[in-house]
Structure formats: C-alpha cells, structure tokens
Amino acid sequence: MIQIIAITSDNKRKTMKSIDEVLDGDYQWWWIDFNNPTDEEVKQLDTKLHFHQLAIEDCILGQQRPKMDYYDDFSLIVTHTIGPVSFDQHEINVFIGDQFIVTFHKDDVPEVNQVWNMAIKQEDMKDWDIYRIFYEILDKVVDHYFPIIYQLEDSINLVEDNPEELSMNVLLEQLFELRHELLKLRHAINPIRDLVYRILNSSHLQGIEDRREYFADIYDHLLKLSEMVDSNREITNDIRDNFISLNSYQQNKVIQVLTVITSIFAPLTFIAGIYGMNFVNMPELEWHYGYYIILALMFVLSLAMIMWFIKRGWFG
Amino acid sequence: MIQIIAITSDNKRKTMKSIDEVLDGDYQWWWIDFNNPTDEEVKQLDTKLHFHQLAIEDCILGQQRPKMDYYDDFSLIVTHTIGPVSFDQHEINVFIGDQFIVTFHKDDVPEVNQVWNMAIKQEDMKDWDIYRIFYEILDKVVDHYFPIIYQLEDSINLVEDNPEELSMNVLLEQLFELRHELLKLRHAINPIRDLVYRILNSSHLQGIEDRREYFADIYDHLLKLSEMVDSNREITNDIRDNFISLNSYQQNKVIQVLTVITSIFAPLTFIAGIYGMNFVNMPELEWHYGYYIILALMFVLSLAMIMWFIKRGWFG
Amino acid sequence: MIQIIAITSDNKRKTMKSIDEVLDGDYQWWWIDFNNPTDEEVKQLDTKLHFHQLAIEDCILGQQRPKMDYYDDFSLIVTHTIGPVSFDQHEINVFIGDQFIVTFHKDDVPEVNQVWNMAIKQEDMKDWDIYRIFYEILDKVVDHYFPIIYQLEDSINLVEDNPEELSMNVLLEQLFELRHELLKLRHAINPIRDLVYRILNSSHLQGIEDRREYFADIYDHLLKLSEMVDSNREITNDIRDNFISLNSYQQNKVIQVLTVITSIFAPLTFIAGIYGMNFVNMPELEWHYGYYIILALMFVLSLAMIMWFIKRGWFG
Amino acid sequence: MIQIIAITSDNKRKTMKSIDEVLDGDYQWWWIDFNNPTDEEVKQLDTKLHFHQLAIEDCILGQQRPKMDYYDDFSLIVTHTIGPVSFDQHEINVFIGDQFIVTFHKDDVPEVNQVWNMAIKQEDMKDWDIYRIFYEILDKVVDHYFPIIYQLEDSINLVEDNPEELSMNVLLEQLFELRHELLKLRHAINPIRDLVYRILNSSHLQGIEDRREYFADIYDHLLKLSEMVDSNREITNDIRDNFISLNSYQQNKVIQVLTVITSIFAPLTFIAGIYGMNFVNMPELEWHYGYYIILALMFVLSLAMIMWFIKRGWFG
Amino acid sequence: MIQIIAITSDNKRKTMKSIDEVLDGDYQWWWIDFNNPTDEEVKQLDTKLHFHQLAIEDCILGQQRPKMDYYDDFSLIVTHTIGPVSFDQHEINVFIGDQFIVTFHKDDVPEVNQVWNMAIKQEDMKDWDIYRIFYEILDKVVDHYFPIIYQLEDSINLVEDNPEELSMNVLLEQLFELRHELLKLRHAINPIRDLVYRILNSSHLQGIEDRREYFADIYDHLLKLSEMVDSNREITNDIRDNFISLNSYQQNKVIQVLTVITSIFAPLTFIAGIYGMNFVNMPELEWHYGYYIILALMFVLSLAMIMWFIKRGWFG
Ligand SMILES: [Mg+2]
Ligand SMILES: [Mg+2]
Ligand SMILES: [Mg+2]
Ligand SMILES: [Mg+2]
Ligand SMILES: [Mg+2]
Ligand SMILES: [Mg+2]
Ligand SMILES: [Mg+2]
Ligand SMILES: [Mg+2]
Ligand SMILES: [Mg+2]
Ligand SMILES: [Mg+2]
Ligand SMILES: [Mg+2]
Ligand SMILES: [Mg+2]
Ligand SMILES: [Mg+2]
Ligand SMILES: [Mg+2]
Ligand SMILES: [Mg+2]
Ligand SMILES: [Mg+2]
Ligand SMILES: [Mg+2]
Ligand SMILES: [Mg+2]
Ligand SMILES: [Mg+2]
Ligand SMILES: [Mg+2]
Ligand SMILES: [Mg+2]
Ligand SMILES: [Mg+2]
Ligand SMILES: [Mg+2]
Ligand SMILES: [Mg+2]
Ligand SMILES: [Mg+2]
Ligand SMILES: [Mg+2]
Ligand SMILES: [Mg+2]
Ligand SMILES: [Mg+2]
Ligand SMILES: [Mg+2]
Ligand SMILES: [Mg+2]
Ligand SMILES: [Mg+2]
Q: What is the pTM of this model?
C-alpha cells in the first residue's frame, strides 16, 4: 500500500494515494510511505521516483545492516526494529531528499504507523518538515527497544532467583536463549548507534542542524541501550559461571558423602565377612564373648573413621 | 522544596524561596535548588525558567546516563551518586547558564546539602561563583565513591581470607554479589569520568578555564576510581578461578580416598565371601591352619595395594 | 591460458590471445586474463608487460594477504576466494593501470569466468571500462562468501539442535571444525574488508570516484559478512560452554544416583553380614522373631535414608 | 628532614638545611628534598614555597596515580616505586619550576638517596641542571622495577617446574599470589609509562628537549617492563589452565581405576554371596566339583571384564 | 671480529679490517660489521665512531625491544632474530648515517652473513647503497620467521591429530610449550612490525623513499606473520578447550559405567546377604523352591534396573 501526505506552500496537509499526483502538484514537501508494497508499487521506486538502482536493490533484498548511503539527490537510511515477543527483525528504509521523505518497509511496522497518525491528527503543519518526520520515526524505533531489554532483564532475574525451583539444566537452557537474544539486540542496536552518530556529524543532511538536540537525545538513548546490553551479557556470563561453580561445589559434597559412607562400611562389612567364613578351625567363633568383642571393635572403628572425617571437614 | 541563594552586585548573599523574586531582582548570580520537588515546583522549570523541553524531560524521567548537553542559553549536566549501603543510584541534574546554576534532584542527596551548608556559612561570597558551586558538588559526588570502593575491597578480602570459615557456596554467592556491585560502580564511574574529561575540554563552559586545576583534580580521582574498579573485578575473577581450581583439587583428593578404600576392601571382602560359601566339598575349610593362611594372604594383599598407591602418590 | 578483451576507440570489443597484438594495436583499454598460466605465459608479466619484480613475485609465490600495493604505473590488488565445500582458498591478483586491467590466478576461479562471460555477451561496451571489470569481479568474490556462511550457520544450528541425537563428543568435534572454518573465514574476510575501505579512500585509483556507490555497496556486504562471522564464533562459544555445563550437570545427577544407591545398600548389606557371622554365642539368632525384627529394622533404616535424600533434593 | 643543594652562578655547589637561606641567596638553581618531613616542614610547602593548595594536598594525602599536573609557575609530577620484597608502594612527588626542583616523599626512598649522593660526589656541577636531577631520579625508579619482575619470573618458573614437588593446591595459592603481584606491578608501571610519554611530548617542560634521548631511553625501558608484565600474566594464565587440565585428566584416571576395581569385584562378590545363602535345597552346593566350577566361572568372568577394559583403553 | 666493506666514488668495492683505514680514506659509503666483537673492538663504537653513549649502552647490554632511535647524526635500529630449533633470540643493532651503516651483533647471525656474501659476490656495486644493505638484512630477518611458524603449525597439527596416540597429559604439556613459543614469537614479531611501519613513515631515513615498495613488501610479510601467530594461538586455545571437553565427556561415561555396575549388584548382593544370615527361624530357607524363587527375583530385579538405565541413555 502507498500512502502520501503532501504539504502545500501555506502549510496545509493533503493526503493522496498516487505518486503522480504529488509529483505533478505544487507542494512544499511530501512524505510517501510504502507499507508492505505490491510488486507493482515497488517498481515505482524506479519508474516514478528514479532512485539509484543500488538503493532500490537494498530495499527489495533486505538483510542490510543499519546504515546511511549518500546518493546524488537523496540519502538512504536503513534502520531495524525488533518485535517484542518473537524477536523478529524488520527493516525500515528511509529516502530523504530536498523536498521529500520516502519510507519503505515490507512489514506493517507500528513505529511508522504511530508517526503517520500523529501527522494526520495535527491541525497545522507549520512545525513539521521532512526532518521532523524522520526524527519521530527514529525516536519511536529506539524507544521500542527499551521494553524489550527490560523484559530480558526480568527473565535474567528469574533465572538468577529461580523462584519456581527449576533444575539447573533448564536454567542453563534459558540462559543460553537469553544470551542469544542479547547478541541479536547488540547486533541491532550498536549499528543504529553508530548510524545516529554519523547522522549527527553528517554534512549531507542539512536539516539535522536545526534539530541537533533532538537527534542527540536519540543518540543518548542508544548509548544507554548499548550499555544495558553489554552489562546484561556480562551478568549472564557471571550467572553461568556461578551455576557451574555451585554445581561443582555440590558435586564435591555428594562425592564426600559417597566416600564417607564407603569408607565406614567397607571395613565393617569386611570384618563381618571374615567371621562369616566357614573354616572349621576359627577359635574366635567359640569364645563366649567373641560376638560382643567384634561388635565393640566395629563400633570403635566406625567412631574413629567418623572422627577423622569430621576433622577433615567432610561433615559440613 | 525549592531553595534559592542569590548574590547581589556587592557579593552579599540573600536566600529566598520564590523563583519570581530572584528573576525580578537585580542579582549578580543565583543558585536554585530543586530538592525532591512537588509537581507544581517541577512545572516552574518550564513556566518560569523556560528550559528546553528535552532537558526538562531528562530531569523528570530520570534514568539518564551521566552526560552533558548543550542548549542555546544553558548546559545540562547529569551525574550520579550511589548510596553507601543500599547501592541505590540517585541522579543530580545541573543546569548552568551565564548567571545561574540550577540543581534538580528527586531525592535528598547529601552531596548537595553539604555544599548548600558551606555556602550558607560563608561570610563573604566574593570567592564564589557559579562554577565554584558546580565544582564543590561534583567534588563531593566523586569523593563519596571512594568509601564505597574501600568497603567493597574489604568485602573482597573477607571472601578471600574467609576468617569465619564459610562454605564455598556461600563465598561464591558473596563473590557474585560483589562482582555485580562492581559492575554497577563501573557503569556509574566510567561515564562520569568521560563526562569530566569533556567538561575539561569543553568550550561551552567558559568558567571552567579559571578553575582548570580543580576540575583536573576531580578527573584524577575518577581515573583512580576507574582503575580500582577494574582491578577489583580482575581480582574477583582470580579469586573465583582459584576457588574452582581448589574445589577441583579437593575433589580429586576425595575421589582418591574413595578409590583407595574400595580397591583395598573389594578384593578382601571377595575372598571372605568365597570362604563363606556353603559348598560341601571345600577342602581349604578343613585345613587346620586354613583360617590363618587366608588371613595372612589378605594381609599381604592389602599391604601390596597400599604400597602401589603410595608409589602412585595417592597418600599425599 | 591467456585471454584478452580489447576495446577500440568506438567501443567495439575484440578478443585475442596474444599480448603483442593488443600492445601493438590502437585500443582504448584492454583486459588480459592469466587463467592457470604456463611458466612461459607467466614470464610475459615481466618481458611483455614490464611489471615490477616484487609484484610479479607476489603473483607467483601466492600466500599473500588481501592487499593493495601502489607502483609507479599500476596498482596491484590481491584478493581471496574460498571454495564452497573444500574451504580451499584461491588468490586473484589484479593489476590496474591507466589503460589496462590484468587478472592473474593460478586456479580456474568461477568469479572471473562469470565476469568474462558477462563482458563477452555485452552488445555494446560503452558502459564498461577498467573499473567496471574490477567492480564486477570484486562483487562476485564478496557475494560468494554469503552462501558459505549460511551453510556454516546451518551446521551450527544442527549441532545446537542435534536432531540425529549424536553423542556429545561427536558434537564437540563438529563444533571444533566449525570454529576452525569460521576462523579461516575471518582471516579471509576482514583483510578484504579493510582493503575495500582503503580502495574507497584511495587517491591512486581515480576511476573509483565515479563508481563510489558501487564499491560502497561491496563494503557494506563485507561489514555484514564480518559481523556474521564474529557473531557465529560467539554463538559456537556459547554452545560449547552450554555443552560443558550440561555435561557437568548430568555428571552431578549420575553421581547422586551412585551415592544414593551406595548409601542405602552399604548399611543394609553390613547388617546382613553381621547376622551371617558364625559365632557360637549370638543370642539374637535364636530369638523366635529375630529375623523379622532385623528385616523391619532394615526397612526403617532404608526408609530414613530415602527421606533424608528426598529432603536434600537428590531425587530430582 | 629537609636537605638542600644550591648552585651558584659559577656552578659551585652549596648544601644547606633552611629554605629561607636558599630563597634569600642569589643562586642559579636549587634542589630541595623533603625526606619523611615533619608536620612543621610540610607546612613550608605552603608558607615558604607558596605551591598551589591542590598540589600540596596531593603530596600530603598520597594515594595518587602517577601523573603530571601543570600549575602557573611549576609542574607537579607524581611517580611510584615498589619495594623489592614487601611490594610496598612509595610515592615520590617532584615539583619542577624555572629555577628549582623539589622532591617530596614520606618514606626514605633509595632512588632519591642515590641521586643525592651522585650530586654530592660531583666535583663540578656544570653538566647538571634541574632536568638532570629529574632524569636521574626517574631513571633509578624505572631501573628498580626490573629486578622485581625478574624475581617474579623466577617464582613463576618455580611454580611451573615444581622442583620441590609441592601439591597442586599450594602451587595454585602461589600462582594466585604471583598474579596479584603482577597486577600491582601493571597498575604501577603502565601509568608511569603513559606519564613519561606525556613528559616526552609536553611543551611545559622545556628542559626535556635537550635531554630527549635520555627520557626516550627511560620510555623504552617502560615499554619493555609493560610487555614483560603482560606476558607473564598470560603465562600464569596458561600455567593455571594447564594445572586444571592435568588435574582433570588425573581425576579421570583415578575414576577409571575405581570403576575397573568395582566392575570386577562386584559380580564376583555377588556370586560368592549366592553360594553363601543357607537355603536347605541348593543342589549345586552338594555337587562334588561345585566349588571348583564356581571358582573357574569367577576366573573366566574377571578375565572377560579385564579384556573389555583393556579394549576400552582404561588400563593406560 | 670487525669486517668492513668500503665503496669508492667509482663504485669499486674494497674490504678492510681497520676502522681508521676507512675513516681516513675517501670513500662514497661503507659498511662496518661488528660480529661477536671483543671488548677492545666494542670500545671503538665510542673512541672511533663517536656514537652517543645511550646508543652504545643499548648495543652492549642487549635486552632491548625492536625499536628505532634518532640521534643527531645517525639512527639506531634494533631488531631480533629467532633460532629455528632452540628459539634463542639474538639482537641485531644497525646504525645508519649519511655515509655509513654499522651492524653490531654479539652472536654470529646467519642473516647478516648472507647479505655480506651477497655484497662480496657482486661484480659492480652501483645498484647498492646503505639502504640496500639495510633492506637485505631486514628481509632475511623477516623471511626466517616463516619456517619457524610453519614448524609450529606442524607441531600443532600433530597435537590435534595425535597419530602416535599419546595420552592427554603429554599432549597438554606439548600444547603448553607450543603456546609459550607462540607467545615468544608474538613478542618478537609485533614490535618489528610496528618498527617497520615507523620506518616506512619516518622522515629521518631519506633513503627509504626510493625503496618504498621493498620495505612495504617486508611490512606485508610482517602483517602476515602477525596474523599467523594470533590465529595459531587461537587454534591452540580451541584445541585445549576441546581436550578438556572431551575429557569431561569421557569421565561422565566412566562414572555412568560405575553407577550402572554398582546399582545392579548392590541390591543383588544385599539379597544374597539376607539369606546368608544364620537365624534359626527363617521359613523361606526351608521352602523347597525358595532358592529358585530368590534367583528368579534377582533376575527380574536386575533386568528392571538395566531397562531403566537403557531408558535413561546410560548404555550409549
Ligand atoms: Mg558495544
Ligand atoms: Mg561497549
Ligand atoms: Mg557503549
Ligand atoms: Mg560499557
Ligand atoms: Mg566478565
Ligand atoms: Mg565472567
Ligand atoms: Mg576503565
Ligand atoms: Mg583506567
Ligand atoms: Mg587498566
Ligand atoms: Mg578499563
Ligand atoms: Mg584476568
Ligand atoms: Mg582470570
Ligand atoms: Mg585478525
Ligand atoms: Mg568485524
Ligand atoms: Mg567485530
Ligand atoms: Mg562489526
Ligand atoms: Mg562471548
Ligand atoms: Mg571461552
Ligand atoms: Mg561466551
Ligand atoms: Mg567463558
Ligand atoms: Mg600494556
Ligand atoms: Mg606494551
Ligand atoms: Mg603486548
Ligand atoms: Mg596483552
Ligand atoms: Mg591465554
Ligand atoms: Mg584462559
Ligand atoms: Mg597482532
Ligand atoms: Mg590480530
Ligand atoms: Mg594483524
Ligand atoms: Mg577464541
Ligand atoms: Mg577459545
């Protein structure tokens, strides 16, 4: 679907659906939104808007890194959004020229819709221009990363505190997933951060200069996001190392129990085995107190063993 | 609560509570402190002081990184303090203009109170100006990080020396907490460090030039703090690796004990089992010295085993 | 084999096999391709084309990193391709002068063949020049890295999901191989990335300026490739750490089973051993309910043991 | 104690103890050494020499990083020495002005004493000036780090070779200490290295220019020291990883022994247990060769077990 | 030993042994080689050639990092070679002035000898000058690192493939040695790489400009060497991690065998122990089929156990 907002020289807003209409008219500036466009509509990037072949290719193929490319009469900016639950990544391509902004996205992305609705609800468009549209979209894109990281932080805390007392292999599996998602976030956020840094320092986008504070504010958020991702990766690192350490500590304890039990009963069972032998000539068997002497001996022996293990700290 | 200090052209200090009063008067410079302000008071940032909307947003929302933003007629500096026990983070926002300094903090922070009391006790204000106020606050903020790190270092030493002989899983839990707190400290200190570096090299804050040595001294402390945090993180790393190594070494020893005990008694118990069988025709059972021969055999066998284990170094 | 395309001043294309022919003729520009050349043909780099001795050495010896060297009247660019299955690395050496491009490769590489066929099929050569040839080759080289990484990503997913339920040592072996291949890819891709960055910013290759967008597009792909390699190395890292953690967790479980079994049966077997002794005077043996009392004792004892282990969570 | 060397205009050396005397006299340049000064003496930094308050604070408080601060009429340089056995760190503060060098240290440091004695023994002072004094002190400070690292390298080699056959937990404890000391060294050496780099490139210390080679030589040594520390940290890393690997390998071997022993004797002991049962009707017990048949069976069974373990490589 | 080549103004070569002779003569340029010099010969660096005291110190003491120092009338370049088997490091010091090159090395190094022999065999010296000598030596030094790395790569492959089926502790020991040698190589190669980079960009060595391609070729090789070392360190890292993982996996398997054996035989042996007790009143003992019933019970029990273990995957 193609949607167009065009602003007249006296700041009136018109909406239309045909690119020809806006190009033929006499407008101050216009915004063309390609939302999940048909193949026919995609072709108009070339036939009507005459964008460079490489820029159009980037739009169609997708799988670009967030980036900014300068062409003779426009700049192409590619940025990414991430869906809150599925972690699906969507691309938004923005063409900025002297009089136009063109947004192109294969999926229906809420960030662009929000800005569209803001613009439509405006009574007067005199505070708006191309760069205002661009700022609002970028601002929404970046803001939407925060709830995603907060959600991941909650999940990390759940793994750390483990209120449902899940077993360690389940926790490790969850941790692995969380790390994977943090990695995806890092590969989405850091290039956008570097992109906004370039936008701030670019001489090609003259309209930025008047809105410097606004784009600097977005850059601020991206720095914060980038630090949160790094910090959370490091925390998951620590949690996993902690799990492994604790597991190893518990294993040590279990093996100590095994060794204590074995060390106490192996000699006792051996002694009982000796007097269970059927030799004809075993004088102790006929002693009147033989049985009691042996029981006492076993008792003393096991006591000595236990003392030794207590001294070694294996009864902790 | 809003508190104001205003300085007259002959360096006299007046205190007041109304922003209108200071703006209408004829003062050399003034300091407005928003300490845990009410919603009504917060609105005056906009209605009376006419700060930029983005700057006011940063104050109200909080959760900013330490940073410095330049606006047309003022600069906004955001810095963090950390409470000594709870590790709670508080934000201090400082607006600096030609004639004013405005501090804004949602919590009652001791660093600002100390400077307020210093200023109030001063007989003559001729050595003071806006940048002196700013320097004193920043100096207190940075100085307060030192006892926090010293306290963490003491805790790390306690974990390493373990005078209360806590078990290893408790120590690992403590170490994990300490690492987490060091991480928080790093994410507080390093951005302040970078911020002070920018302040030192900023051309927007002209009053810094006359107090260069003072701000350089703060920067020095931040470098020292940053190194202490990194160094302590690395030490906790080493302590944990050491714990894991020692745990693994001890486990080895325990398993050796288990193996030695099993290896000695398994064959002996087996031999006793053989002569405990009830076959009718077992000639050894009827030998006169059968019992003694078997006992001797067992003795020799266990001796040989022990020798072999001693040779292998398993009796260390 | 030596193949030559030469373009006349009216953009006609001629193909020939002799270097003398092209040098003696009056052509606008020409492309000489040394494809798996004989020793005789290699010598013509020196005798006919008079390239610098060091440049010729690099071609003949191979084992160069991807790089660009400037000589007085030409530039030498070395780049690598990697075969899809064998991971064999091949070198393509490209000499670029004012009127010529010379490609030299010891193996028959598909990337050059594709461009050759493109050029041959062209009706009119007026859109082509030396840098177009160079761009097309480089573009093919870089594009061919994508399927290789996709293939590695599929293999990594197979190791992670393990649908064939292979044992962990087989998976670890596969992971080790995958990491090795990722390392090889990194050492191929990163230098090419840095090389294209240099080409983009080089003042020696004047023809680049007109095709800036095209080479920037290649650079973009190389950034993407480089990030994919790094990201996949990190994922293999996480997978291996996960395997090790899970292995250690399972071992813990196995040892708990061993300890539980041993702890229950060692005391029971010892008690049975006691009443298997052959002492003449053992009053319990003659009690009418002695046997049942002992059986009950054993039952209670094992129940107590099991309760204790359940409380410890060893029956998870 | 305060010691002073003052040089007259004809390069004669005078020594004195009173700062007033040197300031009132007519000297070319002078060196004032505060060696472990009393509180009274410390005050003279302010009352007599009029240094900046922040510089004096740095001296008195200590705990500074190695650094250089520029003030209006002098520079303050802080550097560290480390004692050879105790690893105690001492600070040397050096004030350099147009006509004076002032050294301030709370402890009696051998590096300064050596230079003092060199200067005192000199017949003619015409080759000496303020920067010569400074160079000689810095040179001694840096040279004294070498024997400390050599000593650590010897200790690391002792841990690696383990000639006294200490147990692994003792070695790990030693390694941990060595790593800690290397960390301390790094935090002493790297800032001095960066400081000397700044001194070499400073425009504030004009006397450096004439002695460039000398200070570059010190910088060289600091680069070497820094690399030695990093390299040794990496080696201790490898040693510890090696210890852990070997420990894990040995544990594997011990557990194999345990498993072999258990696997052989558990079935044998079970069989013996069967024929130790007291059932009235057990025909095998009455067979004439029953006992021998069972012994043979046991022999065959244990042989089969041993074969299986040999095949599995557990008898390595 | 001191050897001298001196070139006359008509490019004739003379060889001599006395420094006086070359300095007194009228030569275009000369090369003085100090090969393992006597103390007497070393003194001539000062008395005859008047080099700076610090430069001479560096030669005599050795233990320098590869580096380049500028003095008023010459530059000193220090570089390292490594012997192929022993990994002994040797230093070559090169002094370059307007008319002379002086090489100084305490050991007889093949790299210098090769260049000497090349120069001696030359018929005409008109293509040679000071920088040609320097280039040839540096080229040999760098080329000699390649076989050393190839040899290490072979050793690493041997450890990985383990054709002699060495035990893991032997392999780990070898790996540790290999890592140590790679570390030594890195500390030799990286500073030389940085040194050649500085040489390429130095304005002090004017003769470099004419041979830029040659020194760039050396730099190329050093980049390649540096990457090979880093890559091989990373591969040894992976090999060791793989060993540890496999060891841990095998241990898991061994412990499973132990647990299975114990779990099967512990209950069986206990049951046999029960019916080996000597109570007077044990009715089962007198049942006609008691023995067979118990045997059947044991069979069923062990079968159930085995089924459970198979289900758990412990018979893999
Ligand atoms: Mg980052
Ligand atoms: Mg970061
Ligand atoms: Mg960041
Ligand atoms: Mg960070
Ligand atoms: Mg970490
Ligand atoms: Mg960690
Ligand atoms: Mg830091
Ligand atoms: Mg630092
Ligand atoms: Mg550091
Ligand atoms: Mg750091
Ligand atoms: Mg470390
Ligand atoms: Mg570590
Ligand atoms: Mg690399
Ligand atoms: Mg990369
Ligand atoms: Mg990267
Ligand atoms: Mg990257
Ligand atoms: Mg990672
Ligand atoms: Mg790792
Ligand atoms: Mg990882
Ligand atoms: Mg790790
Ligand atoms: Mg370093
Ligand atoms: Mg270094
Ligand atoms: Mg290094
Ligand atoms: Mg390092
Ligand atoms: Mg390492
Ligand atoms: Mg390591
Ligand atoms: Mg490197
Ligand atoms: Mg590298
Ligand atoms: Mg490199
Ligand atoms: Mg790695
Ligand atoms: Mg690794």
A: 0.79
